[in-house]
Amino acid sequence: MPAPVAPFAVQSGEGSSLETPTGDVVTIKAATRQTNGTLTVLELVIGPKKGPALHTHLREDELWYVLDGDFRFKAGGAMLRVSTGGMAFGPRGTPHAFQNIGETPGRLLVITTPSGLERFFEEFAVLLPGLAGPEALTAVGHANWIEFTGPPVGVSDPL
């Protein structure tokens, strides 16, 4: 039986903040050790018209809750639009990407299960500023059960 974990709270503005591969910011709100491996919780601030490349999580399901802004999510063959207070879900094994379609930075709460996605961002941040090219991103992705499979939504499906 896994060791018990202690209840905890994370306030607004708290958590470990890192730069993402898109140059945006991710704040780790709950990580593997805090949740006994059950889930990871991240807050992402995504600039206007920005978002990650199409990718697939081989081991995590991913839920996106829009804290602020207007986003579109490409998941499998679906294109989903979600605004403040709404959410979208991408099951593991489904190619997906998202884009902030607003004119100001947007905020997402991302919950993955099981935990572990925070390691991708932590390992990527170690490469900054100079070693974070496409080959390094692919290698960090593979090490964390993520396959990059295409361009960002703004490139593949322009507005």
Keywords:
4 helices, single chain, 159 residues, Jelly Rolls, alpha+beta, three-stranded antiparallel beta sheet
How large is the share of residues in beta strands? Answer: 35-45%
Low-confidence stretches: none
Number of domains: 1
Largest sheet: 6 strands, antiparallel
Q: How many β-strand runs?
A: 11
Which bin fits the share of residues in helices? 10-25%
- The count of helical stretches stands at 4
Please tell me the CATH architecture by its name. Answer: Sandwich
Strands ordered across the widest β-sheet: 1-2-3-10-5-8
Explain this structure.
The model has no long low-confidence stretch (mean pLDDT 95). The chain has one domain: Jelly Rolls (Sandwich), CATH 2.60.120. The chain has 159 residues and is α+β, with helices and mostly antiparallel strands. It has a six-stranded antiparallel β-sheet with strand order 1-2-3-10-5-8. It has helices at residues 32-35, 117-127, 134-143, 153-156; strands at 16-19, 25-30, 40-46, 53-57, 61-68, 70-75, 78-83, 87-90, 96-100, 106-113, 146-152. The chain is globular. It has four helices and eleven strands.
